[in-house]
Amino acid sequence: MSGGSPLADELLTGRAWLFGDDISTDHIAPGRLFHLRTDLPELAKHVLEDARPEFAGAMKPGDFVVGGRNFGLGSSREHAPRIIKLAGVGAVLAQSFARIFFRNAINVGLPVLQCDTSGIGEQDELEVDLGAGEVKDLTTGAVIPFVPLPPVMVTILNDGGLVAHVKKHGGFALPGGPDA
Questions:
Q1: Is the separation of the CB atoms in 23 and 98 below 8 Å?
Q2: Which of 27, 60, 81, 157 has the fewest CB atoms within 10 Å distance of its CB?
């Protein structure tokens, strides 16, 4: 994902790393590492460690976190989606998301896509087309539609997150508005 090119025009590619249902923010950003909250790059080295200890050391930039139901439940700690993004994850795909995690992910510029993840296998090669609203499983040939993100969320993602969006537009800009 390059900084200047709109996400909606990009294809995101990487391998699938499977996680189950009810992955909490404590699984993502372990509470025992709370002392690292002021050093997010260091905390990112431990992302999802309590769910899959090998994940942070073995994933490659662009790979996908693939969850089941209720991904990101628990506390509203913004560190969780931020360290997923800092670790280099291309997007999180899940059957459903905890509402606050979903919003925090968009705010930090991490694509989160709601879709049927049940047919995706461990280490399947995936291609995500945000503009077309689909995930292609290049390993199996399956095409999985995802719930399209509202235009305002796509704009925030394209701008690199909410803070970057507000700085760019001098405030909150709705797509199609006078600042678009």
A1: no
A2: 60
Which residues form the domain of 78? 7-148
Concatenating the DSSP letter of every residue in 54-122 gives THHHH--TT-EEE--SSBTBS---THHHHHHHHTT--EEEES-B-HHHHHHHHHHT--EEEB--TTPPT
123-154: pLDDT as tens digits: 999 999 988 899 999 999 999 999 888 888 88
What is the tally of structural domains in the chain? 1
H/E run at residue 135: strand 134-137
Can you tell me the distance from the alpha carbon of 102 to that of 106, in angstroms, rounded to the nearest whole number?
6
Residue 175: inside a domain: no
* The two three-digit tokens of residue 28, written as one number: 């993502």
Q: Which two tokens stand for residue 38?
A: 């002021």
3-class SS shares of the chain: helix, strand, coil, % to 5: 30, 20, 50
Helix (H, G, I), strand (E, B), or coil: what is residue 38? coil
